Fold this protein.
Amino acid sequence: MANVIPDKFVDLFKKKALASLATLMPDGRPQVTPVWCEYDGRQVLINTAIGRQKDKNLVHDGRVALSITDPDNPYRYIEVRGRVAERTEVGADAHIDHLAQKYLGTKYPYRQAGEKRVLFRIEPESVTTMG
Amino acid sequence: MANVIPDKFVDLFKKKALASLATLMPDGRPQVTPVWCEYDGRQVLINTAIGRQKDKNLVHDGRVALSITDPDNPYRYIEVRGRVAERTEVGADAHIDHLAQKYLGTKYPYRQAGEKRVLFRIEPESVTTMG
């Protein structure tokens, strides 16, 4: 599959900028929340806790959009539309530490008792950019 | 109608933070883009150009979600879900100048030939906050 994310916008995934992830509520309304994310050169990876609204929404309908605004230039952004290619608990706990390292420079400090992490791999399908 | 936006989060609408506006594509997929916005104490106002994807989506389905992250604290945010209460060209041209004043401290400098502005009033229905 062709890589749809332009090279000149890959830097946005390396900065500490949060992505705004839009998912669909079970009745089809949009939901949007800030999330940590990374790009592995092919897919966009996010991580949440099992049972949260995002998780429920993505299980129900895997279609998503996410935008990242350049923290150094608010009029430069990328929007990626795509869908969930994989939802897995395998490696999800290590992955939230990996994301925390990117965003906080430390292991994930917010674990809650009984919380189970889940990792989503999102296949980009189309991209819009500005700036 | 009860005001659903908590007083302690109204400050997010006064800062220069862009909102991430999620709309629905005609086939029901989510779309998300950064937008200027303001809150008049009752509704959230945004402004776009007629014919843009956002405008087309909102005409097709008025259900939206928007989130604003505190530029001074990336782990504080508000998400507002609601729907379009009004779409109007009346006052829309003056309103984009008003928003530009908030975000840029000047009149709107990006007008394009033939562009017609349209103002959307969004009625908040539910709110999620963090921080």
In short: The helical segments of chain A are 53-60, 92-104.
